[in-house]
Amino acid sequence: MKITLIEPSPPGFHIYSFIRQVRIGPPLMATLLRDRGHDVRVFVESLGEIDWNRVLSSDLVGISTTTSTIVKGYRYAEKVREAGIPVVMGGPHVTFVVDEALEFCDYVARGEGEDTLLELVDYLRGRCDLESVNGLSYHGVDGAVVHNEPRDLRPTLSDLPWPDLSLIDEYRKIYPVPILTSRGCPHNCEFCSVVPMFGRRYRRVDPEQVVEELKRLKPKEVFFYDDNFIITKRSAKKLLAQMIRQNVRIKFSAQIRVDSVYKSGRVDHELLKLLVEAGCYLVYLGLESVNPETLAVYNKNQDVDDIRGGLAALRSYGIATHGMFVYGADTDTPESLRATTDFAIQNRVSSVQFLALTPLPGTRTYQALDQADRIISKNWSLYDGLHVVFKPARMTPWELQTAVIDAHIRFYGAQRMTENIKHRLYGFLLSNAWLRVPENVAFMRELKTYSNGLSRLGIPGA
Questions:
Q1: Is 177-456 in the same CATH topology as 2-147?
Q2: pLDDT, mean of residues 349-378
Q3: Global model pTM greater than 0.90
Q4: Which are the contacts of 59, defined by CB distance < 8 A and separation ≥ 6?
């Protein structure tokens, strides 16, 4: 079969506008399909234009989305269906709003979709019954939505092939090279969809396989795509040690928890040394807040001393830090948000993202805010962390929106543009250019009007 997979680009202007990165799912599924003899191509819109001649001559089109890209994904799905071509959608958003998605596509692959997609293709080729494809949703013959049995999570990742990035159109633009070594997360943050999507059980690729793939690719730089590269220190240290032992020292970045390197007053010097020797130069840290009440509400299970100590430890080993903060918990106030911004500046975080709490479908945050009728917009294109889409408890939506913008402007002030120039320039452009996008200007105007109405009623945020 001729199969085309599409990853729509996020709307508007955002921090990832500068990064030529791809999600692992589409090229992995393309590799599995290619290995079964199918003619497969992947279009990642952030890398280049979609070849619609190819798309509209396909036997099946798959569209992979997140919440902020779903509106564009739905538009593309409608275009393909109008041409009489079946469309399957997958990803974290459609997994949790299946009925909505089926208004635009023929099939939804819920959760981990590799085997679901392969079996759907078998069905389209007359090799199995549709009802036997676990993890699939669709409209039955009577028009009612049918949800097949859920698909169990894969017990291991080691039997999956490495994604062949050359199946992506314009793949040479991808930088750094993404490598996924694990899925699942034992933590369970309120606002995160990783656990609902991939489960709490940690599954990893055998370290030897990872090292062999790095040897084969010989990349200039790698981004370890794991939601948390150091779920268990034992596994992480084993992989790093093998990279060093086999002389696979590659410049890399990864997402980790700050308390991996510093916990309860103790620095893990062994881990830090291994990270540096293996090539780590930058880590992405979900710091979220320095308000203890907010950390508790988020179910973050880390404290401010660990954050401060971890940042200092990483800095002492020459590892740059990208801090990600989430503003807008029910415990947050304008004053506590400003204190968090001050903390990031004073503790010399290399670069930051200050994001508005976003109620992504599938998360407990979404469930709570939706049930309380506190979500003010379900325009999914706004669900990018830079637009406030709910009523905070202790401030107006406008106050939260301006706090997010002001935090970026303060952090990326001109006087701080001295080290890590590239990352700081990105942030400076983000905070300033974002405000000049016409759609964002209109959004800000509407949000201010809405918030002023709440204030006149004596309702700060709810």
A1: no
A2: 97
A3: yes
A4: 1, 2, 3, 85, 86, 124
